[in-house]
Write a structure and sequence with these properties.
The chain is of the alpha+beta class and about 425 residues long. The protein has two domains: about 290 residues, 2-Layer Sandwich (BirA Bifunctional Protein, domain 2); about 110 residues, Rossmann fold, CATH 3.40.50. The chain is built from 13 helices and 23 strands. Strands 3, 7, 8, 9, 10, 11, 12, 13 and 16 form a nine-stranded mixed β-sheet that branches. It is elongated, with a radius of gyration of 25 Å. The structure holds adenosine-5'-diphosphate, magnesium ion and zinc ion (ZN).
């Protein structure tokens, strides 16, 4: 992909309305554009990051044996009335009426809809346990939508729901999802803490939140610096020592990126959702629900990883891992060489390379590449190219390497952690 074809406009002044660094950098780097309070366009760069996050989540949900579904965002009021949440959910629930004056909610979450789906679909104990998930737009009329993608009125969530025969089987589903969450966040390059949490409006018996520790977070967690123990502030109460290792506890602000709940029969009971057990008795589902704030993850990643120059994307999230920067101004020959080099990288690592083919000064290209946060910059200068060399800059560490052009694919393969270089050698050997 080339920047002259990419509809983006970066800017280097601080946007006035943005209070947190992730919001500022996403606006400046052309990742998102504000439409109205809590509503954003994802521009091409932002949409690519969103898709990358989604595909890692899909892979790990599938690996955990969950099945993808897609439920409507528009939900009939009757389902919400059956669980009493039509009244209890409060003003955060967007309510609308159709032309026949029937009431609907724009889904902030899908417990009712999925329970209604399961009671028709899962009739026998032989079909259980089952976990269903979707990646979908959610709507919440937040009192204070703010911090860009962090707290929107419309946002992308991965929500999963498990249906089990018993509390024990439900607990196993819950643990499987917790493990999947650790894999997802680690593949995304995020450092998270899992904390015990309150069950809130969703209800149920036990619950854990996954927190990205960051100064701008709206939540506070109490954590142990020596082991993995951590808790949400409400549950930790006055405790000052870690219950596992007696170490002094510390507290810090954090961003909630995931939340898992053991729901028990909170929804299956009022909705009379169950299955036939081996003795032919009608039995209620034991349920769990599991959310990840997909669009919030862009913001959380930037809060955790940036510097004065801009965003520093974890490798797995970057819109493109590699940005090729030919520094020739209007020099056609230089741009052509840049394109050949970009094509070589693209062939080995499809979808991972962007070339900055604008007729811009080197300073402008460097500043934009830093701002947008591409993990690796391949810098093509006149003098180095005469000796068939390119310069590489690693965005995260600032380290620079001078390489022969021929060594580029292997070096990038190592950098991306892909076995591409091995395959290349085999082909060359033949
Ligand atoms: N308004 C919002 N904007 C962006 N992401 C949100 C918003 N509300 C919730 N999320 C994300 O969705 C996940 C699951 O939602 P949930 O736990 O029901 O939200 P909450 O804790 O705000 O009630 C949260 O962990 C969070 O990452
Ligand atoms: Mg939550
Ligand atoms: Zn401890």
């Amino acid at each position: 992909m080339r920047t002259t074809r990419l509809p983006y406009v970066t800017f280097h002044e601080e946007p006035a309305e943005a209070e947190v660094v992730s919001h500022r950098l996403m606006l400046r780097g052309s990742y998102v554009k504000k439409v109205a309070g809590g509503l954003y366009d994802f521009l091409p760069l932002g949409a690519r990051v969103l898709r990358r996050i989604e595909s890692i989540i899909r892979e790990e949900m599938d690996r955990a044996g969950a099945f993808e579904v897609l439920m409507p965002a528009l939900q009939p009021a009757e389902l919400w009335q059956a669980t009493d949440r039509w009244d209890k959910y409060g003003k955060e629930l967007f309510r609308i009426q159709d032309r026949h004056d029937r009431s609907f909610a724009l889904g902030p979450t899908h417990e009712e809809v999925v329970t209604d789906l399961a009671r028709g679909l899962l009739r026998s104990y032989r079909q259980l346990p089952v976990t269903l998930y979707q990646i979908q737009t959610k709507f919440r009329d937040e009192m204070r939508p703010r911090f860009g993608l962090m707290r929107g009125r419309e946002f992308v969530m991965k929500d999963a729901y498990s249906f089990a025969r018993s509390g024990e089987e439900g607990a196993a589903c819950y643990r499987e999802m917790q493990e999947a969450y650790f894999r997802i966040f680690s593949r995304l390059g995020l450092s998270v803490r899992m904390v015990e949490a309150d069950t809130g409006m969703i209800g149920g018996s036990s619950s854990h939140e996954f927190m990205v520790l960051a100064p701008s977070g709206e939540d506070t967690v109490v954590f142990c610096p020596s082991c993995s123990w951590a808790s949400n502030i409400e549950l930790a109460g006055e405790a000052t020592r870690c219950p596992l290792c007696q170490e002094r506890l510390e507290r810090t602000t954090a961003i909630e990126v995931g939340h898992v709940f053991d729901l028990g029969q909170r929804y299956s009971q009022p909705m009379e959702a169950g299955f036939l057990d081996p003795d032919g008795r009608e039995t209620l589902f034991h349920m769990g629900c599991y959310g990840i704030g997909v669009s919030r993850l862009l913001a959380a990643a930037i809060e955790q990883s940036h510097d004065d120059g801009g965003i520093i994307w974890p490798l797995a999230m970057a819109p493109w891992a590699v940005c090729v920067l030919p520094l020739g101004g209007k020099d056609q020959e230089m741009t052509a060489r840049g394109e050949r080099i970009a094509a070589i990288i693209e062939e080995r690592f499809p979808g991972e390379v962007l070339i900055d083919d604008r007729e811009a000064r080197p300073g402008v290209k460097f500043a934009d590449a830093d701002l947008c946060g591409f993990p690796l910059q391949v810098i093509l200068g006149e003098r180095n190219l005469r000796e068939d060399r390119v310069e590489l800059k690693v965005r995260k560490t600032g380290e620079r390497h001078l390489l022969p052009v021929s060594g580029l694919p292997e070096w990038i393969g190592d950098f991306l952690g892909r076995p591409g270089s091995m395959v290349d050698t085999l082909i060359l050997d033949r």
